[in-house]
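WARN retry 2 of 3 for item q-0093 after timeout on previous attempt; input resubmitted unchanged.
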Amino acid sequence: MLRRGGLHRLSMLGAWVLGAAGVLVFGGAPCQAGDIWSDIVARCPSSPRSFEQVLTYLETLRGTGRVGLASIGVTHQGRPIPLVVVAQPAATVSETKKLFIIARQHGNEPSGTTAALALAEHFAVSQGVFEQEILKRLTFIIVPVANPDGAAAGRRANSKGVDLNRDWSARTQPETRAIAAAIEAWQPDAILDLHELPAATRRPAYQENFLETAGRSPLLQAGLCAATSTISRSFASWMHYYGYPCNVFYDYPGKSLALCHRYFGLALGYPAFLCEAKNGPAMTLARKAGVHILAALVIGNYLINSQGTTPLLAAQQAPSPPTEQAPAVKQQEVTVPPAPPPQPRVAVQALPPGETSAEAHRVQIEARVLDADNFSYLTVDINGRMRTLTNRSVHRIVIDTSTLGDGTHTVVVAAHSAGGGVIAQQTCELTIERGRLLVAK
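OK item q-0093 returned
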């Protein structure tokens, strides 16, 4: 296993961020290592590895000197639950930031394993200066297959038929108990749980790739809220850059703690994230893994920069074009000033609820971003609480009016640039009576 103490800590040389065009920026200056996200995605195979192939593959990484392997538990059928630690031997691991990644709680969702192994391989074997400098500040702790029995059988649940991602508040299974013990031992700075969405579904929330995490609430620690808010906005912005549609959903106290990210986030106070990659005809294994890889890079970037001064999205926004001085106009000439460019706008419409009893307490808010070339993502707040974030310029959110309470409720929809600034905003009000929408304006 990796040594966790006794090694000297090298001085901080600078923070790194994903810069313009996805190029790694270190200490504020672009490096020559290229697009780190693309480099890692290129390591993804075209088809998933079996559980036995994963174990064999991990052994090949052990010899790089940056990888430690362990079994943190055993499944009902006797399979080991592997743990991978990727770290810089020249750094003191206990003094680095630590990102804990959990993949394949559902055995039939292999893209998380593919992403986790590609990350491990890249940082284990790369001789690039910047990858090595990153590892001096960030350690990856990875459970590449959280459900070995399910993975071996190609099914969602474990060998006892238990959905592991509904077992975290109870932790009745050896897999959840082993991972929880590992997290307690490592005390990571953030947790990322990787999953897949079905290609065909009627659930509105499952139409796109999404990230789910804790929202801003006075009942949660301020540092936790700041981390989850910043990371989720950055993730949506970078997903937009790489051509992925995505939504972000926020959890608040009172939600069920049976899911992994809610248990560690809402109950234990970790910045914890659920990342769901959407299946579909165009989503190859590498394309799905790319969603997870991007989430890991964005979270790792935040962890490294959280105590630094380098902006998280430094250099991502395009510079403004130079202003040219207008030529002098002859006094006798009559000039017609050019039409001003269209201003960014947000159009918001409340769609009427359906006629069935199930639909009577649901209202859809449709938002459209218009004339905004620098659009990156859209946020929807209800009564000052963030409900969703998306990088789609046309978005619908379904609201259960029975949960709002009678009275008037304010919905604020805002369009943001990549740097987070509001470029357009619109407000509408919903008046609820007896749990149903009475007026929307």
